[in-house]
């Protein structure tokens, strides 16, 4: 016997229509690329999202077509989140920090039809416009008065506000299967080419429910949320959806991610909850400390993407009365998997003990199942010192990459995260290492294999390995370890100069170490964990 409840698909458009109806006057505030502060409400935003949905249809965008963005956090980007997904197309958030070659590769792979961009990225658009194969329209996310003077460089360049002005807001969001794809995000956190993670309406709405819960991010109508985490990083960790679901005020920082600009916005807009990677908080704390400032309303900050150092947790807690919610997840997980909320007995602990709990990556939120396994794949017990590979499963966790890239990623129905951790008796995970061969610098991935391949192309290099070295600001920076060919000579400077023009500048290794040999395993593969161990006391010159 089936239950007798309505079959209502879980659709992203329902989040915005809920916000419009129940929190219509709640504000959405943005620092714009144009430099000023823009204010609207959920009511205003919903009307414009409907107009943009009609504009997309007028551009010939059809169900499941990919529509790309290269944009900061702002109200126009948010309108596209809803206009694109809500109308049944797929929002593809491109990461502007990637090298133009990678952007072209990703846009082609995704078969993007339309590409919306913030004016900051006009030079990047000019670099990629003639090269992408499928993009039919480039749209500058601005008004007529701010269109680039040299707009003719990209023939047929469209203006966002012109598209908006060409439509009215009489539009009804279509109803379709909740399993339809809603958004697409490529990750470079895997070996090989970037891979697409294709979210569905269902996975997104379920993830939104889950992150809103009290022991997750605890989002309420009384909150004012400022997502520092970019909307091109796993949908700003789901906050643009959670804000609508709960009617929280939203504040978008645009390109102003320095400590001073963020602090001013926190205070002026009475932000209560924010989210970002540790590097961003470091810049913010440095500003606040050096000017002896306090947060008058901010009480919770979600920190993830990289491990949050305990010193940062403490400073936020002890000096600024801000509770850090240390969270872990990944693009393949929509992204939230664990959050370090307390259990009752933690409240009886000393402050020191509690900080130690908060420094762990946390326990699984409802919907995410987690386990650690040994090298043979056997599950390891919780509550021991033994670390293992972390595997997860759940309704907002990837089943396969877009277009099946990389084959079937699952192991007996579980997704291997590439992280290595131990789990305590309470189920709190603590990441101890990473098995995937990538480097994460300031929340962005750097492909170690790409860096090695370039070094190997240098005539004086016999073998090259790229590993992550600790950096106090960026958490990790690439360190190139090189074995020279017999009799060959090359300097550090020559090797580093060899990278110029081949990769995004910030991917360039911070230093080169010359060694006699790189440890190899039985199959001849470089043993990077042994290399990391050998160089664990190495200090980068830039650190
Ligand atoms: P991304 O797909 O770019 O969101 O990156 C996901 C990866 O970032 C994870 O698999 C981890 O390696 C790392 N990561 C995310 N959150 C944390 C955290 N709180 N502590 C340590 N590493 C993290």
Largest sheet: 9 strands, mixed
Shape: globular
Structural class: alpha/beta
* Bound ligands, each once: adenosine monophosphate
Poorly predicted regions are none
Instruction: Summarize the amount of helix as a percent range.
Output: 25-40%
List the helices and strands and how they pair.
Blueprint: H1 13-22, E1 27-31, E2 37-41, H2 42-58, E3 66-70, H3 75-86, E4 90-93, H4 100-110, E5 112-117, H5 122-128, E6 137-140, E7 158-159, H6 160-165, E8 181-187, E9 195-200, H7 201-212, E10 224-227, H8 239-246, E11 249-252, H9 259-268, E12 273-276, H10 278-290, E13 300-303, H11 310-319, E14 323-329, E15 336-339, H12 351-358, E16 363-364, E17 369-373, E18 388-393, E19 415-423, E20 429-434, E21 438-441, E22 444-447, H13 448-456, E23 461-471, E24 475-484, H14 492-497, E25 511-514, H15 528-534
Parallel strand pairs: 1-11, 3-4, 3-5, 4-8, 5-6, 6-7, 10-11, 10-12, 12-13, 13-14, 24-25
Antiparallel strand pairs: 1-2, 8-9, 14-15, 15-16, 17-18, 18-19, 19-20, 21-22, 23-24
Helix pairs in contact: 1-2, 1-8, 2-3, 7-8, 9-10
This protein binds adenosine monophosphate.
Adenosine monophosphate binds next to strand 14, strand 19 and strand 20.
Account of the 3D structure:
- With 543 residues, the chain is α/β, with parallel strands linked by helices.
- The protein is built from 15 helices and 25 strands.
- It has helices spanning 13-22, 42-58, 75-86, 100-110, 122-128, 160-165, 201-212, 239-246, 259-268, 278-290, 310-319, 351-358, 448-456, 492-497, 528-534, and strands spanning 27-31, 37-41, 66-70, 90-93, 112-117, 137-140, 158-159, 181-187, 195-200, 224-227, 249-252, 273-276, 300-303, 323-329, 336-339, 363-364, 369-373, 388-393, 415-423, 429-434, 438-441, 444-447, 461-471, 475-484, 511-514.
- The strands form 5 sheets. The protein has a 9-stranded mixed β-sheet with strand order 2-1-11-10-12-13-14-15-16, sandwiched between helices.
- A hairpin with a 5-residue loop joins β19 (415-423) and β20.
- The protein is globular, with a radius of gyration of 23 Å.
- The N and C termini lie far apart (64 Å).
- The structure holds adenosine monophosphate.
- The site of adenosine monophosphate (AMP) has 20 residues, from β14, β19 and β20.
């Amino acid at each position: 016997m089936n239950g007798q409840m309505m079959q209502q698909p879980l659709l992203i458009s329902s989040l915005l229509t809920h916000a419009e109806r129940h929190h219509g006057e709640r504000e959405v505030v943005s620092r714009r690329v144009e430099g000023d502060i823009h204010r609207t409400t959920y009511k205003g935003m919903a009307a414009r999202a409907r107009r943009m949905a009609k504009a997309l249809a007028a551009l010939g965008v059809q169900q499941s077509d990919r529509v790309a963005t290269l944009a900061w956090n702002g109200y126009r980007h948010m309108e596209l989140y809803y206009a694109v997904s809500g109308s049944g197309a797929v929002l593809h958030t491109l990461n502007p920090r990637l090298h133009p070659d990678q952007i072209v590769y990703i846009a082609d792979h995704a078969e993007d039809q339309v590409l919306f961009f913030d004016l900051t990225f006009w030079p990047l658009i000019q670099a990629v416009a003639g090269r992408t194969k499928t993009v039919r329209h480039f749209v500058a996310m601005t008004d007529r008065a701010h269109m680039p003077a040299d707009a003719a460089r990209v023939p047929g360049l469209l203006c966002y506000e012109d598209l908006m002005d060409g439509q009215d807001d009489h539009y009804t969001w279509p109803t379709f299967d909740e399993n339809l794809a809603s958004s697409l995000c490529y990750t470079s956190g895997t070996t090989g080419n970037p891979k697409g993670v294709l979210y569905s309406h269902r996975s997104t709405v379920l993830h939104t429910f889950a992150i809103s819960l009290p022991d997750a991010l605890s989002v309420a109508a009384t909150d004012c949320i400022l997502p520092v985490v970019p909307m091109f990083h796993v949908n700003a960790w789901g906050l643009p959806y959670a804000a609508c679901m709960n009617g929280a005020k939203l504040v978008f920082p645009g390109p102003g991610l320095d400590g001073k600009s963020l602090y001013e916005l926190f205070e002026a807009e009475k932000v209560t909850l924010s989210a970002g990677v540790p590097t961003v908080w470091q810049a913010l704390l440095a500003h606040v400390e050096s000017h002896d400032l306090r947060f008058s309303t901010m009480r919770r900050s979600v920190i993830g993407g990289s491990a949050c150092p305990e010193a940062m947790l403490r400073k936020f807690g002890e000096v600024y009365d801000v509770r850090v919610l240390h969270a872990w997840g990944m693009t393949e997980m929509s992204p939230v998997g664990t959050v370090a909320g307390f259990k009752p007995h933690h409240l009886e602990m000393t402050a020191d003990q509690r900080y130690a709990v908060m420094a762990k990556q946390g326990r699984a939120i409802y919907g995410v199942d987690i386990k650690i396994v040994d090298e043979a794949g056997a599950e390891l017990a919780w509550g021991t010192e033994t670390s293992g590979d972390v595997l997860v499963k759940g309704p907002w966790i990837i089943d396969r990459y877009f277009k099946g890239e990389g084959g079937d990623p699952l192991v007996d129905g579980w997704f291997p995260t590439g992280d290595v951790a131990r789990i305590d008796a309470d189920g709190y995970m603590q990441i101890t290492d990473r098995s995937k061969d990538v480097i994460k610098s300031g929340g962005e991935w750097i492909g170690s294999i790409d860096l090695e391949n370039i070094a190997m192309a240098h005539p004086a290099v016999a073998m090259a390995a790229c590993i992550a070295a600790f950096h106090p600001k960026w958490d990790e920076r690439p360190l190139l370890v090189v074995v020279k060919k017999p009799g060959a000579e090359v300097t550090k400077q020559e090797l580093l100069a060899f990278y110029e023009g081949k990769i995004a500048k910030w991917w360039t290794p911070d230093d080169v170490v010359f060694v006699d040999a790189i440890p190899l395993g039985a199959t001849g593969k470089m043993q990077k964990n042994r290399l990391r161990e050998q160089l664990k006391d190495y200090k980068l010159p830039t650190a």
